[in-house]
Amino acid sequence: MKFLDKEKFKKWLQDPRNRLLVISIACMLLIILGVQFFSAPEKTEDTPEETADTYIPDGYVLVPIELQNADSLSS
Question: What is the C-alpha separation between 20 and 60, in angstroms, rounded?
């Protein structure tokens, strides 16, 4: 069984409502793709890389902790 029969598709496309539906869906897709493509943010190299120092306020220190049940957590 064929999913898309050319004869049925031609008959279906002869109806003006179906033709309008296909054209409107194609236009919406083109508009969506155009907006996505042209509204992409510009990549700038001026932004510094984020490090742990940017998240830790001045005066605070990170203290490493050792878990006693690390083996059971890793599985």
Answer: 64
The predicted-structure confidence for 44-72, as pLDDT tens digits, reads as follows: 666 666 665 567 778 888 888 888 887 88
| Dist. CA 69–CA 36, nearest whole Å | 48
Backbone angles phi, psi at 64, to 5 degrees: -70, 140
Tell whether pTM > 0.70.
no
Q: Which two tokens stand for residue 54?
A: 């940017």
CB half-sphere exposure, 57, CA atoms < 13 A? 1
CB atoms within 10 A of CB 18: 13
Helix (H, G, I), strand (E, B) or coil at 26: helix
